[in-house]
Task: structure prediction
Amino acid sequence: MSHVFPTASRRKYQLIRNVVVIWLTAMIVAAFALRIPFINILEHTARNLYFHVPMWFTLMAAVFVSAYHSIRYLGSGDAIRDIRAAEAARVGVTFGVLGLLTGIFWSRFTWYQGTEIWWNWDPRQSMAAVELLIYGAYFILRDSIDDPEKRGKIAAVYNIFAASTVPFLLYVLPRQLQSLHPGAEGNPAFSEITDPVMRLVFYPAVIGFIGLFWVLYTQRTRLRLMEERVEDIRFEKETRGDTL
Amino acid sequence: MSDWLAGTWAVFRKDIELELRDRFGISVLLMFVVSTLLLTMFAFGQQQIEVHVQAALLWIVIVFAASIGLGRAFVSEVERGTVLLLQLHTRSSSVYAGKLLFNFLLVLSANVLAGIAFVALLNIEVVDIGLFATTLLLGSLGLSGASTLLAAIIARTANRGPLLPVLVFPLLIPLLLSVISATKNSLVGGGGWAESGEHLVTLVSFAGVVITASVLLFDYVWKD
Result:
């Protein structure tokens, strides 16, 4: 059993990776250095917009990538698709946790200053929590099956099945829970509270973090492929040693 | 088509007959429901519980009971060694439909009992019985729809026991929220049918989506 490495040209890959690194560095410097307009309650914590919101975009991107590869795995049975789905989910979970943490700390020390509220039942926060629960279950399920082919198939089915219920959260949660986020009832829309200067950093930040996701996810995929190859070689050597 | 229906009916009949032979699944479900309700009754004592809490309690008990009871559907086939026979004899969509039907019946009977016991034991007034019953029915449909495919999934894992709650709870949150709101509306001080429309629509579409997705995905779980 041997795996073919993804056929990306090495130089192109390194180029994109370096662009992402430089892009993100510039974005982080700009996020702290650029002047921002005064916003009531938020004040300088408004800079968290550059970090908190892109985390969500990245989680969403990861969910899509993971579900896409799960669907492709069921179609082709190609082992790399399963690895890609699992690694996209793993890196997505990291971004989801960071998004939750940045959101929780942000709201705790601005809107909830002076109260003891850490967790608020904001629809988006709840949805992210559910998404993380789903991936938690997904990884537990993966761990409980030994045979790689079977594991890939069952995990892909669960991934797709779970993804099909997530749109209901988009519909149900906002009707049941109050939101802090822009665009919700009684809150100003996103474009009203953000200054052009902030958007100048915000959009590149979204692209930068999705780029970071892509780099981490492809690196992890390659790592897993190499681990499997090492395993294969060791196995081959051992069996040959036995016959000699 | 008639072939498919006959296959579905045969799977359903087989499960019913096996269930009637030892009554394991249904007794576990019923005992679970009754003992949990008794526990909550003792926990709350004489206190009057708020309407929202009443609805939430009922559905949390039901969801836990279902996640324990419905996990057996395919595990029992593995334990009896009848998986291969079913695979050879019946189309996989028939197997799914038969199992879904059986699970639906199982969870519905448990829910009806839970509803009655809940109303009787916890001193709860149901104003709109029609709405209460509709909610139980649609809730059971969504519950069995979401857990039948997952029951087939856990039958393929190494440690088949306690995995179903972990897998199914994250998916049930939209169902749980709508079903609790609708139940609340059917109790004293609730909004009745007038305010339950969107919740019932959500329940119907939830059941539709999970069952459709299950039908599409079931082949991959069932066949090697």
Remarks:
- Chain A touches chain B through 29 residues (CB under 8 Å).
- Chain A has seven helices and no strands.
